[in-house]
Amino acid sequence: MGQANAHPEYLARRSFGSLDGLRALSILGVLFHHCGGSTSGGVWARGHLGVDLFFVISGFLIVTLLLRERMHTGTVSLRAFYARRSLRILPLYYGVLLVTWLATLPSESAGARTYREGLPWALLYLTNWHVVQGMLSCTWSLAAEEQFYLAWPWLQKHGGRLALPVLVLLLATCVGLQLTHALHGVPAGLPDFLQQASFTPILLGVALAHLLHHAPAHAGMARILGTAAAAPICLATLCTAVLWPSDDIDGPQRLLVHLAMTALVASCVLREDHGLAGMLRFRPLATVGVLSYGIYMLHGFAMHLSAALLDPPRTGLAPAHLALSTVLATALAWASYRWFESPFLRLKQRFARG
After folding, report:
1. Distance (Å, rounded) from C-alpha 218 to C-alpha 211?
2. What are the tens digits of pLDDT across the range 238-272?
3. How far apart are CA 195 and CA 174, in angstroms?
4. Residue range of the domain that includes 233
5. 2, 25, 257, 261: which sits with the fewest CB atoms below 10 Å from its CB?
6. Neighbours of 337 (CB within 10 A)
7. What is the pLDDT of residue 55?
8. How far apart are CA 317 and CA 50, in angstroms?
9. What is the DSSP letter of 51?
């Protein structure tokens, strides 16, 4: 596309065709991690970084929508924003918590008691500040995203010119915590989440949204990341950063991963015909991305069912367990999307703006 038209065409684009594919890669990494990768050691234990890519995408997409709403309407409706987010997230989240709680009621096993003890923290989206175990352990990332949804749109609307200085300050603080963690570990009383990943990838997504929304920054980034070859190069860089041999992925290495993820997202939204477009728009992969939230919420059930059917080893990755869990989680997520979530999602149109 011509340089003069690149930014207007970017602002006019109603969707980004490769983000579902990136979401699919994220959730597949998480499934790999939870199906034994976490106990396999070395580079095989890094599937959890899929959550960080989710964070970058979420920060970018949410703030892009807010900026475009303000561009088209002159303001941001927080009421409409929170209504849309609530209809997307809360029904399945609280539905899963309710079903799991009901399932644990007849049991006095250690796992059931652990679940009930952690449930109040999950109900309040605070599990990134208070460690919970068992099937609630994956809710920490949802808590982090929910806190972002609560805080940043308000600042985006009411902060005015302070929003960007606050963003820079928060990013510097989070990066400082990451680097400090690599050198000194976790100070007493400070959640480990805030040191290892923190809100850094979400905030990098926010920063990317602001940069691409403004014409001069968009032009500068397009010169670097707007070529067809940029996306494959960014993916290769990300894989190198993730797979680089080390005892643990932490500090500077994890920050490099976050920056590579941000560059990858940028290269996939600056132009639709980038070098990874064919792969990321491959229908089965994109479908997994569309269902990624449901897969994340329901993969615990799928893993338990798979374990009951296959009796996989307790440690290390079992390929059959991973494959069956992925199929079952996708099927459960599709059923949930089709028959449970869709009525709520249709209500979102009442709150569409811009």
Report:
1. 6
2. 999 998 887 778 888 899 999 999 999 999 999 99
3. 8
4. 40-276
5. 2
6. 17
7. 96
8. 17
9. H
Question: How much is the pTM?
Answer: 0.94
Amino acid at 121: W
Q: Is residue 217 part of a domain?
A: yes
- Give the per-residue pLDDT at 314: 75
Whether residue 235 lies inside any domain: the answer is yes
Say how far apart CA 112 and CA 312 lie, in whole Å. 22
Rounded to a whole number of angstroms, the distance between the first and last alpha carbons of the chain is 25
Number of domains in the chain: 1
Q: Classify the C-alpha dihedral 146-217-15-17 as positive or negative.
A: negative
Can you spell out the DSSP letters for 286-348? HHHHHTHHHHHHHHHHHHHHHHHHH---SSS--HHHHHHHHHHHHHHHHHHIIIIIHHHHHHG
Q: For residue 2, is it within any domain?
A: no
* Cα distances (Å, whole numbers) of residue 260 to 154, 234, 240, 250: 28, 6, 10, 15
Residue 188's pLDDT is what?
Answer: 55
pLDDT in tens, 2-55: 566 889 999 999 899 999 999 999 999 999 999 888 777 766 788 989 999 999
245 in Cβ contact with 42 (< 8 Å): yes
What angle is formed at CA 212 by the lines to CA 150 and CA 170, rounded to 5 degrees?
40
- Which structure tokens are listed for 270? 């600056």
Taking only the tens place, the pLDDT of each residue in 179-228 is 877 676 655 556 666 656 679 999 999 999 999 999 999 999 999 999 99
| Spatial contact of 264 and 22, defined as CB atoms under 8 Å apart | yes
Single out the residue of 147, 173, 163, 168 nearest to residue 58, CA to CA: 147
Average pLDDT, the chain: 91
The answer to whether the CB of 295 falls within 8 A of the CB of 31 is: yes
**Where do we find the tokens 């597949």?**
28
Residue 231 lies in a domain: yes
The residue written with tokens 């972002």 in the block is 148
Mean local confidence (pLDDT), 109-114: 88
